[in-house]
């Protein structure tokens, strides 16, 4: 899957454990920067399933996430906000199934992002039929943090109350992309 990326558009991926405010932050940032944000493909995909999802579904979800990311890229304004990316699928796959599909790992190594915003687990858990591990968020966060520390793209941890999270994320994007 080839990524369409106009040279002037920077990609920001908002990642982190479940129920850490990724979607809300992504929507806010898109409004703030007057651009597009890519929703989490997995949510719609899983909602349509009439059976529990499997590891094979994660590869289908990865393909869907990349496809809509490329579609939204065309209409973005200088920055594209991605509510999740393949690191989320990788970590989830390894956590739930003990391994990750090699194709997902290849995509991770070839897809370019310019900044990661890693959301912390300091906001209250909200029940949702798709959320599975309310007591494992810190453990998952630590896995995300290690992943971010072991890759080359800048990342910023996003913590605190909603307004502080917004401020930290806006400053991180401006620092990275606005001279």
Radius of gyration over all CA atoms, rounded: 15 Å
Helix content: 40-55%
Main sheet record: 5 strands, parallel
Strand content: 5-15%
Q: How far from one another are the termini? A: 32 Å
Annotated CATH architecture: 3-Layer(aba) Sandwich
Order of helices and strands: EHEHHEHHEHEH
Number of helices: 7
Query: What's the total count of β strands?
Result: 5
How do the strands of the widest beta sheet line up side by side?
2-3-1-4-5
Q: Outline of this structure?
A:
The chain has 179 residues and is α/β, with parallel strands linked by helices. The protein is 49% helix and 12% strand. It is built from seven helices and five strands, in the order βαβααβααβαβα.
Description:
There is one protein chain. By secondary structure, the chain is of the alpha/beta class. The chain has a single domain, classed as Rossmann fold (3-Layer(aba) Sandwich), CATH 3.40.50. Helix content is 49%, strand content 12%. It contains 7 helices and 5 strands. The protein has helices at residues 22-32, 41-48, 55-73, 86-97, 102-110, 137-149, 162-177, and strands at residues 10-15, 37-38, 79-83, 115-119, 155-158. A 5-stranded parallel β-sheet has the order 2-3-1-4-5, with helices on both faces. Strand 4, helix 6 and strand 5 (155-158) form a beta-alpha-beta unit. Helix 3 packs antiparallel against helix 4 (86-97) and helix 4 (86-97) crosses helix 6.
